[in-house]
SWIM zinc finger domain-containing protein
Amino acid sequence: MTQAVQTYAYLRSSAVRENSSGRSLALETSGGATPTGAAANPRFFSGFLTAPAPAAAALLAVADVAATRYYQPLRPASLDPVVTANGDRLRFESFSGCCGVYARLDVLAEGLDGDDIGHGTTNVDVNNPLREALGLIGAADPLHLAVGPQALEVTTLDGPLVEKKVPLPERWLRGFAETQVVAAGFDLRAEVPAAEAVRFLRSLPRGTGRAGARTAQWVVAAGRTLRPTSRPVPGAVCLPGPERLAALQRVLRHALALRVYGPPAGPAPAAAAWEVLLPGMRLTLTLSPDASRGFSGEGGVLDALATGDAAADAELVSVLLAWEPRIDPAELAEQAGLPVARVRAALTRLGTAGQIGYDTAEAAYFHRQLPYDSGRAETQNPRLRAAHALVAAGAVRPEPGGGALVSVDDHVQRVRAGADGRLSCTCLWWAKYRGGRGPCKHALAVSLTRSATAAGTTVTAATVGSQRVEGTR
């Protein structure tokens, strides 16, 4: 697995500190992006949490996910959560070490009482002493929250700069790209009150590892309750690896309701989002379609990356984003002078650099800015690299009707275009997944060839350069 070393530099460790007015939760920030450019340690908020105990429990849940490998738990993960300030809320996000669980805590305006909320994205330090202190926060404890350093703190002599050098898998960035594509296809499937949420979640197994990794389960709403079902009946939501919802146990005593989001039920396992509604905030866990599958391999972004206009459109759209909490593609299309479909493809492409997320509760995209180069996930995607190599080698021979023959070594794959324009292939990848994990490299090569032809350009070996890979799936 490709890895890069990401250095998180904090002025000091995050902590819960006692002062004359009570307890103060100081979350230290690392380098991040703001409207004025990159900042070493940005400050996003200073004020009180209106529901201290639920907020502390929810932050711990996000940290739990970041520190856990749910599939083959050989070693703990060590990633610090990402925080984005959108002007009217704070969002804390993390991925599990296996990349199969995505957690997000949205602390809304009604959950915060203090200064104006800033704009930007960075990482926050969550260390073991902080976790222990958060676990002691009671319902009657007033809790002040500071996200980022105060001016006075910068000049203190409390200790040296705290640095964490973390081996960061490329799949973590690709997970951010894939989850916004997956979640955009979700609809609300069930909403149950707190008592039923507690009953249902406490009935789930808590073990981790390989047990049940390939056993698909479904859940369906029955009035104001949730009941399991052995097959994907209409309205059902897939629940693969139910032990991966264990982090929600931390917030059950504060829950107001449970909402479940997913795509229309089908024969194949699918991802789903489980949202616990808390006072002034929402905690959401999104599960991959299988406990053994990380979001990084889902392939939902590949069609957009193979579209010729997406790169230029993404560059145009990116200058119109300003950490908006809700992005309306129709409004953005009007501002950019583009069709809505092209704006959606551009947003998907921007998601490969971690710039776009999707909020299922509001059915809207939102903007963040992670410290990754634009297109980094694109260059690290094995299927896309292989498709570029096929095109550069002249392996694609278009046929009438929109299909093509793709020569790979000593054999030929046939790519056909359906009535809806969707491409299918005769390769083993398509036979196994039927498009459920994105297009195969042969279909991608055909899409790239179409885009190059429409643009009047030619893809050569120089285009692929050092990204050319032979024998990739």
